[in-house]
């Protein structure tokens, strides 16, 4: 049976890196070609690589994640994702917790601990967001200009659009797409991919 890995950071690879997570899941048995990585917020349910992993993984497989918050920082989304993995009868290793759905229902005590950690993860995120909003409000009150210029389809480099077609055809993976398009930030690559997928036809 296949052993998958999922690694995520919230900010791009110029500020954070998934390298340590990749190393950890590989040490636990994840196959390099089956490790899905991305730079996206844990509060978002619709993540490209997460969705691809959930679609690819099948009954009897194992999923390894270094910690619960890498899967999601939303309790509702976490339970939704775990339901998918349960329906697929997958063994899930979330840091110190193991949920073996291949055998049906898991130990209620373990599931309870996972739920509790999910609540703490979501709470931690809410506290962080609250502090950021407070800081932004203070800065705005002092007259500081906030935010950055909005990215539009027209601002996506033509080279990226050209290589995106090859990516959609399966000729390039995400890393190759970024490298050949001369874009170092993986977050930017994923952002462009999402914009083009939401506006099909504009990559031509």
TrEMBL record:
Sorted alphabetically, the keyword list is: Plasmid
Which ranges of the sequence are coiled-coil? none
Q: Which GO terms describe its molecular function?
A: DNA binding; DNA strand exchange activity
Q: What is this protein called?
A: Resolvase domain
Q: Which Gene3D superfamilies match?
A: Resolvase, N-terminal catalytic domain
InterPro entries assigned: Resolv_N, Resolvase-like_N_sf, SSR_resolvase
| Species of the source | Romboutsia ilealis
Q: Which residues form the Resolvase/invertase-type recombinase catalytic domain?
A: 2-143
């Amino acid at each position: 049976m296949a052993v998958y890995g999922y690694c995520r950071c919230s900010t791009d690879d110029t500020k954070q890196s998934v390298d340590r997570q990749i190393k950890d899941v590989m040490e636990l048995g994840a196959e390099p070609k089956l490790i899905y990585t991305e730079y996206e917020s844990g509060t978002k349910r619709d993540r490209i690589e997460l969705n691809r992993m959930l679609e690819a993984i099948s009954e009897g497989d194992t999923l390894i994640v270094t910690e619960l918050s890498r899967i999601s920082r939303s309790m509702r989304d976490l339970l939704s994702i775990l339901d998918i993995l349960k329906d697929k009868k997958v063994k899930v290793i979330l840091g110190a917790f193991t949920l073996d759905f291949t055998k049906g229902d898991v130990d209620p005590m373990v599931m309870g601990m996972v739920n509790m950690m999910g609540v703490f993860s979501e709470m931690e995120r809410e506290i962080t967001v609250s502090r950021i909003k407070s800081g932004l409000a203070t800065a705005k009150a002092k007259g500081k200009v906030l935010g950055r210029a909005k990215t539009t389809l027209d601002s996506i480099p033509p080279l990226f659009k050209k290589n995106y077609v090859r990516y959609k055809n399966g000729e390039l993976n995400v890393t190759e797409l970024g490298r050949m398009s001369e874009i170092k930030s993986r977050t930017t690559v994923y952002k462009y991919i999402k914009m083009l997928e939401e506006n099909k036809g504009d990559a031509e």
